[in-house]
Amino acid sequence: MTKDLKLLPSEDDLKDYSRLRAMEIKTQDYTIQYDEAATTVNCKGSFRLSGMEEYGPIVDLLDSVADAEPPMITLNLRDLEFLNSSGISMLSKFVIKVRQKKNIQMVVQGSKDIPWQGKSLKNLQRLMPSLELQLE
Amino acid sequence: MMTLPWSYLNSAKNLPLDSQEHQGELTIMETRVFGEFIEALPEQREYLVMGFSPSSFPLKQRWRNNGLSADFLADYMTTFFPGDEDDPSAGKKQAEIRSAVSYIANELLENTMKFNDERTPNIISIQLYLNSDKIVFVATNSVRQEAVPGFQEFIQELLTEDPGDLYIRQLEKNAADEGGTSSRLGYLTMINDYHAKLGWKFETLSSDTDGISGDKPLACAVTTMVQLIV
Question: What ipTM was estimated for this complex?
Answer without folding.
Answer: 0.84
